[in-house]
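hey so i finally got around to running both of the ones u sent me last week. sorry it took forever, my laptop kept dying halfway thru and i had to restart like 3 times lol. anyway pasting them below in the order u listed, first the sequence line then the structure token line for each. didnt double check formatting much so if smth looks off just lmk and ill redo it

first one:
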Amino acid sequence: MKKIAVFASTSLFLYLISGCSSGAPSNTPSVEPSNTPEAVVQEPLTDAEVKMMYSAPDEYKGALVELSGVVFNTVEYDEDGVYFQMWGDPENSDLNTIVTYPDPNFALESDQYVKLTGTVMGEFTGTNAFGGEISAAVVTADTLEISTYQDVVSPTLATASADVPTVEQLGYSITVQKAELAENETRLYISATNNGSANFTIYSFNMTIVQDGHQYEEESNYDADYPELQSDIRPSVTTEGVVTFPALENAPFQLIIEARSDDWDEDIQDYVFNLDFQ
């Protein structure tokens, strides 16, 4: 992941907090005190408004936002809270955001994915380690939670199951637990158990998906850090992991898995699974 070093020290964050006002932007409804029992509740910016906010954060001071992203650079703490930067668009290392959260006990590390609700404080402009000018939206978070790559970048759109989830040959079984379709990938949750008499080998790059006359091979996603399916499986061992493919159509498909054992007298055919998204 591309990283931009910004001088984001604690003193900078404190300066930003003290220097940013909380007035609502001209195109966002402000929250006025109410004399009625039911006070007006401020609604967070829509996805379209959030995109515009990143183009002109000063125009959205005081707006409520719901954001997610990945933390980058050093996370800093003082007695008042935690301070960090995140990419609001992790896939493209874009939408630079400086976040303050008033909880010094909140454990956070670089490269973690987060979700937050907070208030836009304005825009910070500075220089990176190479002397280039950068800008970032500044947000004070009211809520902050650790999330995952899957929830932030690649949420599930549909789930598929196999008509026969487990196929066994000579004691060597493979199970397709489920498949998940996302906008940018297809995730296959697979387990393999060796109850045979020899070592069992299954390689993810020897897996193939066939859908509507098209063939798809594994497409690794190193950013996601999914659990990895082990390749060489000794007797009495079970392994499970996630194998990723390109995004499919929301339609039936077939998964074909090549495998073998170390006993050359054992004839192991391809493992074939038919799946359909719900």
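and the second one:
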Amino acid sequence: QVIVYSVSGNKTAVLSPIAIAGVYLLVRAARRPPAAACLLAAPAVSVAIMLIDHLSRSVPGDLTSLIVRRFLVTPGLLTAGYVQVFDDIDKARLAHSILSPFFDYPYTKDPPFLVGATFFGDPSTHANANILADGFANFGYLGMVAACLVCVALMWAVDDAAEGLPLGFACLVVLMPALALADSGILTTMLTHGFLAAVVLLALAPRTGWPISPRAVP
């Protein structure tokens, strides 16, 4: 992961081992927290991180910028940015991607750079966004619906592929591809960030030989 970060500068490469270790401890716990507690964790962690930055007099708030801004605020902001940029112009229609043989792409920049230049005013900004933003850029609101439907199909595929496996193993395999949904389009997540590979891995994983545990994906 350090080598990947040194080449790409992708912060996820450095933070993913921490995320995987945290989820591992969570699924190994004797009692898992309820869903409501998991939902409250995001604002609670945000407040704690901002407090740490304030007390340490970090300028301009390194932890806040890295975790709160990057992982929580930016994905929502980018959704609005994509809607604003592509609302009154021609949609991309995946002409820069898998549908390039069928459609002509009307722009000189891919959608992330187009949004970076138009919405953020910086041509060098690569504003990669989540499945909703990417869906709108390609086919408008129908694209958002289509991206959600594909995501639902992926969740069903994960459920089927993980049947009979320990829940903790399934969670760890799917964790990072699932997090990529917040920063990438649905097709990019499936093909580039390993979501389809994770489904195949779960389907091929042996169902016997695991440590005895009452927890398994039903």
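quick thing i noticed on the 2nd:
The longest helix spans residues 131-161.
anyway thats it, ttyl
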